[in-house]
Amino acid sequence: MAEPSVTTLSPAEVVDEFLRVIMIPDPAGARRFVSPALRIRFTGGRAMSDPSECAAFNASRYRWVKKRIERTDTVAGGSDAETVVYSVGTLHGEWPDGTPFEGNRYVDRYVVSNGLITHMEVWNDSAEWLLVRAGLATL
């Protein structure tokens, strides 16, 4: 089956397909869905500009991680060509030591302009869960 053309996808479909590909992980393939001027703000305020940086960060934090998308919401953006897309759900996977986890909440915010993701912001519970695993906090 042929890969969908970015130009035929709605903004929500662009985000969903980007997430499907980046979670493989296939950062090179994910670049099809992003603007060359992409700006990423990852958990903890980490600035990034390429899907490969997201994959590398995830590889340092998890043995593997995937998203269970519960819903994708769209909101009109600041211009006719801009749409804000929220992806909401949970993460599941394994910590670096192989311990499985699931139910780790996430919210991602994307700005899609002219069919490409220009901005991406990522929030999840992983930092808090890691503090609990280290004995430094409780939930």
Could you describe the 3D structure shown?
- The chain has 139 residues and is of the alpha+beta class.
- The protein has a single domain, classed as Nuclear Transport Factor 2, Chain: A.
- It has four helices and six strands, in the order ααββαββββα.
- A six-stranded mixed β-sheet has the order 2-1-6-5-4-3.
- β4 and β5 form a beta hairpin.
- The longest helix is centred in the first third of the chain and has 12 residues.
- The protein is elongated, with a radius of gyration of 15 Å.
- This is SnoaL-like domain-containing protein.
- InterPro entries: NTF2-like_dom_sf (IPR032710).
Low-confidence stretches: none
- List the secondary-structure elements in sequence, H or E: HHEEHEEEEH
Tally of contiguous helical segments:
4
Percentage of residues in DSSP E strands:
35-45%
Globally, the shape reads: elongated
Please provide the count of β strands: 6
Strand order across the biggest sheet? Answer: 2-1-6-5-4-3
Judged by helices, strands and strand pairing, the structural class is alpha+beta
Share of helix, binned: 25-40%
Largest sheet: 6 strands, mixed
What is the level 1 CATH name?
Alpha Beta
Count of folded domains: 1
Which CATH architecture would you pick? Roll
Q: Over the alpha carbons, how many angstroms does the gyration radius reach?
A: 15 Å
Question: What gap, in angstroms, lies between the N and C termini?
Answer: 45 Å
CATH topology group: Nuclear Transport Factor 2, Chain: A
